[in-house]
Write a structure and sequence with these properties.
- It is built from 7 helices and 4 strands; from the N terminus they run ββββααααααα.
- The chain is mostly helical and about 260 residues long.
- A hairpin with a 6-residue loop joins strand 3 and strand 4.
- The radius of gyration is 22 Å and the shape is elongated.
- It starts with about 25 loop residues before the first strand and ends in a 5-residue tail after the last helix.
């Protein structure tokens, strides 16, 4: 297993502040690439490309107790290291913590990470290293599926702020709830009509896209209250979208 990551990765620069400026116990994964010449990212972190994190407190390799701060594989015994605690999904995927995620970028990084971490790559390793690989691969899957989905990404960003949305929300505008009820009735009456289902699916997508742009603006302005209200609406429209997707599947509609 090589410690270097594919050259196709774009370099991601750690915050301009020094590693010592990171809050205590905060660790952050970052993705790097290297070219023919070694690039000094920071004086305190090696410029060799790879999946990395920063930590104020040195950690120990689970296999040989070697102290390390920013490695994916132990530089002494070469085993796959356990992921530090308190990492968010944006750090794991090596992207900026922003609602506006570039799908192509995150998908490419997901594929590259799984090439490195998939358990199939560790078939001849120790049981411990196999388990570490399974844990990391599973976490990368979860991070990707969350950040690649507009609603899940928004809800996760709220979670990072300590905000959660209850399953049953009773504070919504009655007019909005009536609109959702009417939309469901419309879907019910169009259940066997392919053309109507396609039109409703297109309308639902447009509504979700609009709400996604609105929530992106709210997060940009750090208006968590507005972002929360929009995401509550998105949950209802996402349910409608899932229902329409199932109907299209049942009707054999392939797009």
């Amino acid at each position: 297993m090589t410690r270097s990551i594919d050259k196709m990765f774009l370099m991601r620069i750690i915050k301009k502040s020094s590693v010592a400026g990171c809050p205590v116990n905060q660790q952050c994964y970052k993705l790097y690439s290297h070219h023919t010449s070694r690039i000094a990212v920071q004086s305190t972190i090696s410029s060799v490309g790879g999946l990395r994190f920063c930590s104020d407190n040195p950690l120990k390799c689970w296999n040989c107790d070697y102290m390390y701060k920013s490695e994916l594989f132990c530089s002494k015994c070469k085993v796959l290291l356990e992921m530090p605690q308190n990492l968010n999904y944006f750090d794991i995927m090596g992207i900026k913590k922003d609602y506006n995620v570039v799908n192509e970028e995150i998908h490419k990084k997901y594929r590259e990470l799984q090439k490195m971490l998939h358990p199939d790559k560790f078939g001849n390793k120790s049981e411990k290293e196999k388990q570490v690989s399974e844990n990391l691969s599973s976490l990368v899957n979860k991070a990707y599926s969350t950040l690649a989905h507009p609603l899940k990404r928004g809800l996760y960003m709220l979670q990072l702020k300590g905000v959660s949305i209850p399953e049953e929300t009773t504070s919504l505008n009655p007019e909005f709830l009536m609109e959702i009820m009417e939309r469901n009735e419309e879907i019910e009456s169009a259940a066997g009509d392919k053309d109507k289902i396609l039109k409703l699916a297109m309308k639902s997508k447009e509504e979700l896209d609009t709400l996604s742009r609105q929530v992106a603006e709210a997060f940009y302005k750090k208006d968590i209250e507005t972002a929360t209200k929009i995401l509550i609406k998105m949950k209802y429209y996402d349910s409608i979208s899932k229902r329409l997707k199932k109907l299209k599947h049942d009707l054999g509609i392939v797009e």
